[in-house]
Specification:
Blueprint: H1 2-30, E1 61-66, H2 73-89, E2 93-98, H3 107-112, E3 119-123, H4 127-132, H5 140-144, H6 154-157, E4 161-162, E5 165-166, E6 169-175, E7 177-181, H7 182-187, H8 199-209, H9 226-238, E8 244-247, E9 250-253, H10 258-273, H11 285-293, E10 299-302, H12 305-313, E11 322-326, E12 336-347, H13 353-363, H14 370-385, E13 395-396, H15 403-413, H16 423-426, E14 429-433, H17 439-455, H18 461-475
Parallel strand pairs: 1-2, 12-14
Antiparallel strand pairs: 3-12, 4-5, 6-12, 6-13, 7-10, 7-11, 8-9
Helix pairs in contact: 2-14, 9-10, 9-17, 11-12, 17-18
């Protein structure tokens, strides 16, 4: 009997130990998986466990962030300063710099391999795309609890508000415009057009300045890369057209409209009637903007800050000779519609809740802050020492009428090396957001159409657009189901 009691006792102890082990395994399986990035080496020694607390400043957290490319020296300096100041407030956070630049063809691979940064950059077209594929964290709660949410610029921020939820943080934006070299117009005695200009004004100005024999063009519409389709889309919008529409849960191509034909016919006129575009018209963004900065073309179509920056700081132009115009209206009294785009930061949905919170805090760290304002002023002052100009974004993350917006305007007014946009253009600009479905695929397809028009005088605009719409519809849009 005693022997049996001993056996029973051992059995009870064994069952208890087995149950304890099972509970530990179950608890471990329910714990959130740690996220890693390829640029974060494994620590040589074990990190002490974070204190069990809800205070985010007491937890050891590592995040990887979008970091500007090596050519953007001044922006890197600003980011380094921000990291330093952020770590002074949050010494518990380790920040890893990621040089990966958002690419719609790579984001799926990065997410699948868990290699996307905790906080990465993207652009306006990608909001719906990222949200629907689960590649952007739902940061609605973080945004709604943000004390300055009501001062964010709705023109930008609302582009990443999908079905009532927030999936991104606005950084800066633009309405595509036309940047004009006034000196080139003056030298050729070509009248400077009014800001409330039309397609005919653009064509006549470009024709008057162009000197093909000397390699000088009146305007340099982009002719290669997706930016070519992007450039042309401004004219589609100005003619009252659109890229796509939703009908019965389907996405339908609409750019093969009468408006599309008008816009493509205008491109034909710039090339074959006015002879106003470069003889070598296959220019990407960098080529076209570079030609403008070098005085080889009088006009370029883009988000204005880039061409203005290069013209002043690389081309040696004077601010008075670099004019920013809205896109021309198709006809007098029409809208000056330009593609509305912008840069956004997105939080990785694979990150833990703590990492997502820290990423949001980092993204908005300088927003609406005096330290952020001081950092901006230091950047302007350094540029002045280097004999360079500071060119602000056309649209900022903050509302211009907010208290902070007024502080920024006052700061800009203190320095003569800050480029100032003429307030007249802001009353004319009409920004239209890019399409939310397969926009880059559409741009690439339209680039082929633009090249056909520039290379063949008798290219049929209607036939070209019909073929392009059929391709985009069958290859891309037919694969989409809209709830």
């Amino acid at each position: 009997m005693r022997k049996l009691s001993v056996i029973l006792l051992c059995l009870i102890v064994f069952i208890g130990l087995f149950a304890a082990c099972s509970n530990k395994e179950e608890a471990a399986s329910k714990a959130p998986a740690a996220t890693t990035t390829p640029s974060t080496p494994a620590p040589a020694t074990a990190t002490p466990p974070a204190e069990n607390t809800d205070d985010i400043t007491k937890k050891n957290v590592t995040i990887s962030i979008y970091y500007p490319t090596p050519d953007l020296v001044e922006r890197r300096a600003l980011e380094d300063d921000k990291i330093k100041r952020f770590n002074e407030k949050y010494p518990n956070v380790k920040i890893v710099k990621s040089e990966w630049q958002y690419n719609p063809n790579e984001i799926g691979i990065k997410m699948g391999a868990n290699e996307a940064p905790t906080l990465f950059n993207t652009y306006a077209t990608e909001g719906k795309f990222l949200a629907e594929r689960g590649w952007a964290a739902d940061i609605t709660d973080l945004f709604n609890s943000y004390e300055f949410k009501d001062q964010m610029n709705p023109i930008l921020q609302d582009q990443f508000k999908i079905n009532g939820k927030v999936y991104g943080i606005a950084q800066q934006g633009y309405v595509t415009g036309t940047v004009v070299n006034k000196k080139m117009l003056d030298d050729k005695q070509v009248p400077v057009p009014d800001y409330d200009w039309t397609w005919e004004d653009m064509l006549n100005t470009a024709k008057g300045v162009a000197d093909p024999g000397k390699g000088i063009s009146g305007i340099a519409p982009m002719g290669k890369g997706n930016e070519s389709g992007w450039n042309w889309t401004n004219f589609l919008f100005e003619a009252g057209g659109d890229i796509q529409k939703i009908d019965g849960g389907k996405v339908l191509a609409t750019f093969n409209s009468d408006a599309g034909v008008k816009a493509l016919t205008f491109y034909n006129r710039l090339k074959w009637e006015a002879n106003a575009i470069p003889q070598d018209w296959a220019l990407g963004w960098g080529d076209a903007v570079g030609a403008f900065a070098q005085g080889r073309t009088a006009m370029v179509i883009a988000g204005p800050d880039g061409p203005v920056d290069q013209a002043l700081n690389q081309g040696g132009m004077k601010p008075a000779d670099v004019l920013v115009y809205p896109m021309p209206a198709m006809e007098k009294g029409g809208k000056h519609t330009g593609v509305l785009g912008g840069d956004f930061l997105v939080v990785n949905p694979n990150a833990s809740k703590d990492e997502q919170e820290i990423a949001f805090k980092y993204a908005t760290f300088d927003y609406f802050s005096d330290k952020g304002l001081a950092s901006l002023e230091e950047n302007i002052q350094q540029r002045k020492k280097d004999n360079k100009y500071f060119v602000p974004q056309v649209i900022q993350y903050f509302n211009d009428n907010s208290e902070y917006g007024k502080k920024v305007a006052a700061l800009y007014n203190k320095y003569d090396n800050v480029y100032q946009y003429d307030p007249k253009i802001t009353t004319l600009w009409d920004g239209k957001p890019e399409a939310q479905f397969n926009t880059q695929d559409y741009y690439a397809t339209m680039t082929n159409v633009v090249q056909e028009v520039f290379s063949k005088k008798d290219a049929d605009p209607k036939a070209q657009l019909e073929a392009a719409a059929k391709l985009v519809q069958e290859k891309f849009f037919n694969q989409i189901k809209v709830n």
